[in-house]
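Q: Given only this backbone (214 positions), what sequence would you predict?
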């Protein structure tokens, strides 16, 4: 954490307002942070930096826990049906410059997710295949590797079962799933498993920045 000058910190009656783009700290956040630090606290600038760091962590966790997925998700979701051709999947992703999308069945229930990683691994048979590796191989062969996928469908290449999240779950829950499952997007579903939105790491980042500006 960068050094905090005295004029960067303002103490108020209800909390502490910190650096730009940081959430406002409540008294509860500060008290919780104080409990994290062992021993006697001499309120020097060095001690305050440590206290501030702990308090910010508690504040962010509190805000992420209280922020619901339905309030930050994207409702206009680009998706494809399980029977969509490979060409259709590519066109759908290219139309919105996205790197992945949910796959739904005839009832609009989420059955999988197609990402760049799914496409690359299908081409190379390698889970760690990259765009540049694919491009390099295409340049060195007479027939583009992409042509081998022209007969497959979204259902053939998607990752399934889909990792999803409910609209009333918290942003903190989404962050945990992103980290645990090493993914970048979560289809948002209702109680019947039907697609109602999508939440990405970008949604979480934007929500965090908006909180910091308040």
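A: Predicted residues:
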């Amino acid at each position: 954490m960068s050094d905090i000058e005295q004029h960067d910190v303002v103490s108020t009656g209800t909390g502490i307002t910190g650096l730009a783009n940081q959430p406002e700290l409540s008294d509860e956040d500060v008290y919780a942070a104080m409990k994290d630090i062992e021993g006697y606290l001499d309120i020097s600038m060095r001690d305050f930096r440590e206290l501030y760091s702990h308090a910010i962590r508690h504040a962010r966790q509190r805000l992420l826990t209280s922020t619901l997925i339905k309030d930050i998700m994207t409702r206009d979701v680009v998706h494809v049906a399980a029977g969509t051709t490979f060409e259709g999947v590519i066109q759908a992703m290219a139309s919105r410059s996205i790197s992945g999308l949910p796959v739904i069945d005839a009832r609009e229930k989420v059955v999988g997710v197609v990402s760049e990683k799914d496409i690359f691994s299908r081409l190379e048979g390698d889970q760690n295949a990259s765009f540049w590796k694919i491009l390099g191989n295409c340049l060195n062969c007479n027939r583009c590797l992409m042509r081998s996928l022209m007969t497959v469908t979204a259902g053939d290449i998607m990752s399934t079962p889909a990792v999803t999240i409910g609209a009333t779950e918290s942003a903190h829950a989404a962050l945990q799933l992103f980290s645990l499952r090493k993914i970048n997007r979560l289809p948002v579903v209702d109680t019947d498993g039907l697609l109602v939105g999508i939440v990405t790491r970008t949604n979480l980042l934007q929500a965090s920045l908006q909180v910091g500006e308040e």
